[in-house]
From TrEMBL:
Gene3D superfamilies: 2-enoyl-CoA Hydratase, Chain A, domain 1, Lyase 2-enoyl-coa Hydratase, Chain A, domain 2. It catalyses: a (3S)-3-hydroxyacyl-CoA = a (2E)-enoyl-CoA + H2O; a 4-saturated-(3S)-3-hydroxyacyl-CoA = a (3E)-enoyl-CoA + H2O. SUPFAM superfamilies: ClpP/crotonase. Belongs to the enoyl-CoA hydratase/isomerase family. This is enoyl-CoA hydratase. It comes from the Bacteria. InterPro entries: ClpP/crotonase-like_dom_sf, Enoyl-CoA_hyd/isom_CS, Enoyl-CoA_hydra/iso, Enoyl-CoA_hydra_C.
């Protein structure tokens, strides 16, 4: 690939494959810069548009998923330049536009913007070496990409306040216990386990996956009654897909389904 801050690869041998995006600024513990986000946004949207890709895995290195926004860059800004350039956050929303499942595979540090980026993924699989935190307050600033919004929704107010106000890090066990990550695996199995989860997803119906993702995300933005009503109508609507017939016919005939993603 022609990228400088990320590495892209494709894994799997089924009809739908897994896109693997690796953050790659090792000397800065994958600190998140505008050039990195330009590349990440471009790669995410390209994979999302590619019919041969079923889902996307985002990972970092053994030492760090990402140690936050790039501090030397932040240090150059004042209020006016931050607003004018939409500092650091200008491309962050790209990841939220991706319709396919995005899994974060986190080893080592996921701090500040790194933790926020992981939280923008659909779920997080953590290595037992993972450490999560929002240490912005140590730099005299606030989080700027979801730390005060997604973290409390994930772990509750008490733990979010604790992490945000004390700047402490939490390890993978605490992160799993509090609901920030879906599973913890040994560090040397992180990629294998995450790619296996991705492979399972790749075999399922793309429209069903997309609608599930949309409904879960909507549950954080709407009331229960509205969410449940939308869910029921979407459930009815998927009976218009070939994949519904295939999935149920396969079950009734005791054979594996072959989804055509329509
Ligand atoms: C730029 C960074 C960096 C960062 C680490 N490095 N974090 N460079 N931006 N966020 C660099 C270090 O300067 C160092 O470069 C190299 O990576 C290795 O880091 P060390 O500090 O030597 O490693 P270690 O002692 O193991 O400590 C690791 C660490 C520490 C605990 C992760 O680096 C750290 O506290 N980093 C900052 C974490 C942080 O505050 N993140 C929040 C940023 S604010 P050299 O060249 O010296 O070897 C933020 C706001 C987001 O994220 C807002 C969203 C818009």
């Amino acid at each position: 690939s022609s990228y400088e801050c990320i590495i892209t690869a494709v894994h799997g041998d089924g009809p739908r494959k897994t896109a693997l995006i690796t953050l790659n600024r090792p000397k800065a513990l994958n600190a998140l810069s505008d050039p990195l986000f330009d590349e990440l946004g471009e790669a995410l949207l390209a994979f999302d548009a590619d019919d041969s890709i079923g889902c996307i895995v985002l990972t970092g290195s053994e030492r760090a998923f990402a140690a936050g926004a790039d501090i030397p860059t932040l240090a150059q800004h004042d209020f006016q330049s931050a607003v004018r350039t939409d500092m650091i956050t200008r491309n962050w929303e790209h990841i939220l536009r991706v319709k396919k499942p995005v899994i974060a595979a986190v080893a080592g540090f996921a701090l500040g913007g790194g933790c926020e980026l992981a939280m923008m993924c659909d779920f997080i699989i953590a290595a037992d070496t993972a450490k999560f935190g929002q240490p912005e307050v140590k730099l005299g600033v606030t989080p700027g990409a979801g730390g005060t919004q997604r973290l409390p929704r994930a772990v509750g107010k008490a733990k979010a306040m604790d992490l945000l106000l004390t700047a402490r890090m939490m390890d993978a066990t605490e992160a799993e216990r509090s609901g920030l990550v879906s599973r913890v695996v040994p560090a040397d199995k992180l990629l294998e386990e995450t790619l296996a989860a991705a492979e399972a997803i790749n075999g399922f119906s793309a429209p069903a996956l997309q609608l599930i993702k949309e409904l879960v995300n909507r549950s954080f933005e709407s009331g229960l009654k509205e969410g449940v009503t939308s869910e029921r109508r979407v459930f009815h609507a998927v009976f218009g897909t070939d994949d519904q017939r295939e999935g149920m016919d396969a079950f009734l005939n005791k054979r594996p389904p072959v989804f055509k993603h329509g």
